[in-house]
Specification:
Elements lengths: L1 H7 L6 H17 L8 E10 L5 E12 L3 E3 L1 H11 L2 H21 L6 E5 L2 H5 L3 H12 L6 E6 H4 L3 H14 L2 E7 L6 H4 L6 E4 L1 H5 L5 H16 L3 E5 L4 H9 L4 E3 L9 H19 L1
Parallel strand pairs: 2-4, 4-5, 5-6, 6-7, 7-8, 8-9
Antiparallel strand pairs: 1-2, 1-9, 2-3
Helix pairs in contact: 2-3, 4-6, 6-8
The structure holds ligand C2E and magnesium ion (MG) (3 copies).
Ligand C2E binds next to strand 2, helix 3, helix 4 and strand 6.
Length: about 290
């Protein structure tokens, strides 16, 4: 009876919602096996020291090279992969790929940079997360101090005690931790103090209109002040203009990333950028 009623509700879906649902179901089906078929790619976006404007880190950002739809953005498939659990193997693959890439850059003698990788809520719930991270560091030969993991407040707030424990274990490996999309979550200052993170990343929604919207500027200034008083590093995401850059520089924000510097790019583009900056350093030293 209940099932029957449930079914009959489908007729109320509008055609547009139906089409969206169909697209999502199709993507979900195709996502199974995408990793095995070699369709996942990792792009990298530079993070720049806002004082020296040198590249000091890159963030690994996954892309899906879909057989017919081209490059699919994570905005389209991460939520699906979260819902069906595929994010766990995909996330582990991203971490392994990014760590191996970072080690390869080091072995090529390029200037050392931090590698930052996003963690999903589902990965954080896995009981063996710390072991997997530690195993990947060993396997790839990357020192822990070169790796940063990005977490979000929203998933840390689920079971705070457990979160604090896992974060501490990750820090004990020697890696850094960043709070991503900061300012959009619960922002409980009481918990913030307990989470052993090194870095706050100001969400791009504030940075986008920091020079035109007083409220965004107020939030940005407050986050920078908070980070400083907690002795945390601070990154601004989504810097697109010179004005935004100058504003954040004046406020003493440490690092930034955004289309103003570079979009996320394939690894060989980062190799070129790092080669150029090491040549510049050599010619300055000569
Ligand atoms: P995020 O971790 O906050 O990453 C930053 C996002 O902002 C990236 O989007 C990046 O391309 C975009 N971005 C950077 N600078 C600018 C800018 O100046 N303007 C604009 N408009 N956007 C900018 P992307 O690559 O589409 O990734 C979206 C989100 O998907 C990420 O947000 C992250 O939450 C998730 N994601 C990406 N890769 C992974 C992954 O490997 N694992 C997990 N769990 N999540 C991932
Ligand atoms: Mg991130
Ligand atoms: Mg972010
Ligand atoms: Mg974001």
């Amino acid at each position: 009876q209940a099932k029957h009623q449930g079914r009959s509700q489908y007729q109320f879906y509008s055609p547009e919602i139906n089409a969206q649902l169909q697209e999502r179901l199709a993507l979900e089906n195709e996502l199974r096996g995408a990793l095995e078929r070699g369709e996942m790619l990792v792009y990298y976006q530079p993070l720049v020291d806002l004082h020296s404007t040198e590249v000091v880190a890159v963030e690994a950002l996954v892309r899906w090279q879909h057989p017919t739809q081209g490059l699919v953005s994570p905005a389209k498939f991460i939520a699906i992969a979260e819902a069906n659990g595929l994010i766990v193997p995909i996330g582990e693959w991203v971490l392994r790929t990014a760590s191996a890439q970072s080690r390869a850059w080091q072995l090529a003698g390029l200037p050392p940079i931090r590698m930052s990788v996003n963690l999903s809520a589902r990965q954080f719930e896995e009981p063996n997360l710390v072991d997997i991270v530690s195993q990947i560091l060993q396997e790839t030969g990357l020192e822990a101090s070169s790796l940063e993991l990005e977490v979000t407040e929203s998933f840390l707030m689920g079971d705070v005690q457990r979160s604090v424990k896992i974060l501490k274990q990750l820090r004990e490996l020697g890696i850094s931790l960043a709070l991503d999309d900061f300012g959009t979550g619960y922002s409980s200052l009481n918990y913030l103090k307990r989470f052993p993170v090194n870095m706050l990343k100001i969400d791009q929604s504030f940075v986008q209109d920091v020079t035109s919207n007083r409220d965004s500027a107020a939030v940005t200034n407050a986050i920078i002040a908070l980070a400083k008083s907690l002795r945390l590093n601070i990154t601004a995401e989504g810097i697109e203009t010179q004005e935004q850059l100058e504003y954040l520089q004046r406020r003493g924000c440490h690092e930034g990333q955004g289309f103003y510097f570079s979009r996320p790019v394939p690894p060989d583009r980062i190799t070129q950028m790092l080669k150029k900056s090491s040549q510049q350093m050599e010619s300055m030293a000569a």
